[in-house]
Structures are given as C-alpha cells and as structure tokens.
Amino acid sequence: MTGAEGLLSEERLMIRDTAREFTLNEVLPVANELDPQEGEIPLALRDKLADMGYFGIRIPEQYGGSGLGCFEYCLVAEQLARGWMSVASIIARGNGTLTMDLLSEAQKAEMLPRVVSGEYLGAMSLSEPDTGSDLASISCRAVADGDDWVLTGSKYWCTFADGADYLVVFARTAEPPDAKRRHLGISAFLIDKPRGELPPNCHGAPIPKIGYFGWKTWELAFDGLRLPGHALIGEPGCAFYALAKGLDEARAHTAARAVGLAQGALEDAMAYAQERMQFGRPIAEFQDLRFKLARMASDIEAARQLLYYVCDRIDTGARCDKEASMVKYFASEMAERVTSDALQIFGGAGYTRLHAAERYWRDARLTKIFEGTSEIQLRIISDHLLGKSGR
C-alpha cells in the first residue's frame, strides 16, 4: 500500500502496520468463522481491542486515552474493516467525539477511563421508524416530571443496544419554534443499563439484516422510562448541534471502513486469481482480469488519498463538511463497485460463504446508506458548489 508521504509520518506508519498485523492475526480469523453464522464479536476480541488502545484513540491522555487525531483513528479503522467491518465500527463505541462533546468535565473524568479500558461502551439511538436522514424530525419525547424525565417513543437502527453499557438517546424535550428550526428542542440522554440487556420499560427486537453481522441492530420502544435529571447530557434542546459537529469525523470513519472493505476484497481477489487455473493457466494471466484488478487498486488508492486529506483538515480544525461528504460518497460508491468486481473474479465461488468476498460485498453496500446516504452527500456537496449551504 502506498500513501501520501507528507502525511504518513513514521508514527502513523507504525500505527497503520500494527493495526494491519492485529487484523490479520486476530480479527480476520474470527470474522471468517463467525460472520457466516451471523455470530457476534466475542468478548475476548473486544478485550484485545481494549488492550491495543483502540477504544481510546480519540480520548485525551488525561483520561487514559491516546489523544490522537481523526487521521490515526481512520488508519486503524481502515485496517480493522479489512478484517470485519463490525470490528472497525465497535471502536466508535469508545471513541465517539459526539458523546465527549456533551459530557461535563466531571462526567468525562468518571466515564472516559472506563471507556478506554473497554469496560463502558455505548450505543447511539438517533433514528426512528419514520425518520431516516432527517434527524431534525424525531418524535421520541422526554417530558420533565419533577427532577426526573420520562421517555416515551420508538427508535430504529440502534446497533449494539443490547451489548452496550449505556445508550445515548436523542429525544424531543420542547417543540421547535417554527418549521425551519425543527432541530431546536432536541436533547440527549445517557441511559446506564446492564450489559447484555435493554433498559427497564424498553422493549425491542433485532432487525433482520442482510449483513453487518457481529452484533445486533435493534428497534426499540420506550414506554415511560423514568430517568434521573442527570441523565440529560449537554444543553437541553441543543443536542442537534453536537450531532452536526460530529458528522465530519463520522463520515471520514465510514470512508475508512469502505476503503478497508475494498482493500480486503482486492487482496483476496488477487490471491485467488493467481491460484485459480482455467484453460491451463492462472486466471490472473487473462488481460481483462488483470485490468480489472488495476482499476480496483487505482480506485481504492484514490479514495484513500482523499481520506487522508479530509482527516488532515479535520485535525487542523479546517472546515470540511463538503470534503467529508465527498470522501464518504466517493469511498462508499467505490467500495460497492470494487467488492462486486472482486466477487466476480471469484465467479461462482464468490457467491458462497466459503470465501470472504461476499462479506465485503454485503458490508460495502451498507456504507452507501449509514452516516447519511449517498444522495444526502450529493445534496450537501451540490449545496456548497451552488452557494446554498447554510452551515
């Protein structure tokens, strides 16, 4: 793999290469065994991720984290996704800058060291059955009752709701002043719960997915869940701003996962093409297949270099909502195309669970949907190009 040498310092190269070695030795064998069974990420592997410091990459050193940037976070995520995208995703349950932005200093001091150790991991509950990308329209409600809050409503697409140690739920606590400011009146609540269970007065069912195995994704229904006053985190009615602030890094993280999936598919396809014999020679000797591999590798590297650029802008504090949407769009579209090409190289064998090609393909398809669909990214990019962005 090549890289932009001006951005890939010796330390970053070491972080990348260490994460790759960890993935090949620890993540990939587990993924190859459990994903075909729709199994879950083992606790032993989660503990190894914690030992590697991967839950604390973005957490400041004063709380026990590494205090590193989005660049390092995405370097690690790319490598983990090369093994199993769910593992590249679970580290976000520790590194989430959104939660950190909402916490008080006292809460950070108490919670974040436990997050770094993997002892206290969270799940985000944002979307609802009738609310996809339009998060300003959420209707789940939290009503003040004395010093408490009472939470009622439905949520959708809450991945890791059962395995997490806490949920962060976005709910409406006040009516918006008008239709153009629907994002106002949304608050965030941190709900502690036993690992392996849902909170009391919360019912749910796993959503039957076609991929993204390794953990369950839930539909939740809160039926008058009573929360203490301190469960409210951040300023009441202003949680949407923290959500918007965290989108650039979340989209870079998705792009990194897409690049990792595509890289895994390419490497598997190259190995298979050199082993698979047809008409008396390896299929890698056929020109059309060789050119297909060349196009796949070129597309991956283009997405990777754009990702490095976006991560550098995030870490230097430059505005990059347009660029973050570009890399999320470009990398996810690329990943679906490249993983599909890899499956084609495997032929009929690729359409079985005997090879990882189908896993990369299924998971790559999801990157075009979560953290804002490709269509949402195009809307953001075009708004910037045409001078219509309000951000």
Outline the structure in words:
The protein is α+β, with helices and mostly antiparallel strands. It has 3 domains: 10-116, Butyryl-Coa Dehydrogenase, subunit A, domain 1 (Orthogonal Bundle), CATH 1.10.540; 122-238, Butyryl-CoA Dehydrogenase, subunit A, domain 2, CATH 2.40.110.10; 243-385, Up-down Bundle (Butyryl-CoA Dehydrogenase, subunit A, domain 3), CATH 1.20.140. The protein is built from 13 helices and 10 strands. The chain has a 4-stranded mixed sheet with strand order 1-4-5-8, with no helix packed on it. Strand 9 and strand 10 (281-282) form a beta hairpin. The two termini are 36 Å apart. The relative contact order is 0.12.
Summed up:
The chain has 391 residues and is an alpha+beta fold. It has helices spanning 10-34, 43-51, 70-83, 85-90, 92-95, 97-102, 105-116, 239-245, 247-275, 287-315, 321-346, 357-367, 374-385, and strands at residues 122-125, 141-145, 148-159, 166-172, 186-192, 202-206, 217-227, 232-233, 277-278, 281-282. The model has no long low-confidence stretch (mean pLDDT 95).
Secondary-structure blueprint of this entry?
Elements: H1 10-34, H2 43-51, H3 70-83, H4 85-90, H5 92-95, H6 97-102, H7 105-116, E1 122-125, E2 141-145, E3 148-159, E4 166-172, E5 186-192, E6 202-206, E7 217-227, E8 232-233, H8 239-245, H9 247-275, E9 277-278, E10 281-282, H10 287-315, H11 321-346, H12 357-367, H13 374-385
Parallel strand pairs: 1-4
Antiparallel strand pairs: 2-3, 3-7, 4-5, 5-8, 6-7, 9-10
Helix pairs in contact: 1-3, 3-9, 9-10, 9-11, 9-12, 10-11, 11-12, 11-13
